[in-house]
Amino acid sequence: MEKKLKNYVRVILLLLLSSNTYAQKEDIIGFWAIEKVTVGEENMTPVAKWTRINADGSYQAGNGWLQNGQGHWQYDTEKKMYLPTDALDIADEFGGFTVSFENNKMNWEREEEGMHVKVTLVPIEKLPMSPADYLEGIWDLVEITESEQSILDDFDEENKHKLFIRWDRIYINFSSEGDRLTGYWHINGHRPEITLLPHQESEKPESWKIKVDDRALIMSGISESNKNIERKYERRNTF
To answer: Could you please report the per-residue DSSP string of 92-152?
Structure first.
C-alpha cells in the first residue's frame, strides 16, 4: 500500500512538473512590445520594438509598422531558455535568453561580452507606432524660433515652406523661396531623431530631435548648422 502511494505521489509530481514547463512555453506565445532593454547600466531600449511569437514555432519582429525580422524559435523547458533564429540575419553568438515572468511581463536575460542584458516585454494587441510612422505626410510650418525668438516673418514671410515626408524615405522640402529640394530621411532606431540627407550637393545634412503625433511635428536642431533652432509644423492633407 505504501509503495503504491509513493508511486502515485511520484506520478502526480511528474505531471505537475511537466504541466508547469508546458505552461511556461505556452506563456511565451503571444504579441509583445519591448518595454525596456538594459545592457549593463545603460538603457538601450529601441523605439517601438515588438515581436510576435507564434504557436507554430515561427516569430516576426519589427519597429513600429516596419517588420524587420522573422524566423523560428526554440524553448528549452529545463533551462527555461528562449532562442530565436533568423536565417536572414547575422548569426547571434550570445545564445538564448533565460526567461522569467513577473506581473504579467516577460523578462529575457543573458550575458553579452561580459555585460548583463535584460529585456522586459509587455503583452500588446496591436502594432505600436514609432515616430517614423507618424512622420509620413505633409507638414506646414507654423512657427520657427532661434534661441527662443521667433524668426517666422523673416524665414517664411509668404508661408511657402512645407515639408513632405514620404513612406519611401524620400522627403521634399518646399523652401520659402519657392524651390523644391529633395533628399533622403533617416530615423534613429533608439532615439526620436531624424537626419535629412539632401540630394543637392550645395545643401548639408542636418539632424533634428523630434516630437511628433497625428497632428503636430516639432523639430529641434542638434547639428552645428541648426543648433538653437526649433521648427513647429502642423499636418495638412493638401499642398
So the answer is: -TT--EEEEEETTEEEEEEEETTEEEEEEEEE-SSPPPPHHHHH-EEEEEEEEEETTEE-H
CA dihedral of residues 126, 128, 132, 136 (deg, nearest 10): 40
Mean per-residue pLDDT, 37-47: 94
Q: Are 207 and 193 in contact (CB under 8 A)?
A: yes
* Measured distance CA(34)–CA(56) in Å, rounded: 21
Confidence at residue 9, expressed as pLDDT on a 0 to 100 scale: 43
Rounding to the nearest 10 degrees, give the CA dihedral for residues 183, 133, 32, 84. -20
Largest Cα separation within the chain, whole Å, is 97
* Adjacent-strand bridge partners of 173: 163, 181
pTM of the model: 0.81
5 vs 1, 15, 17, CA distance in Å? 6, 15, 18
Res. 57: pLDDT tops 60:
yes
Residue 170 to residue 183: CA distance in whole angstroms: 6
- CA-CA distance, 43 to 196, in Å (whole number)? 26
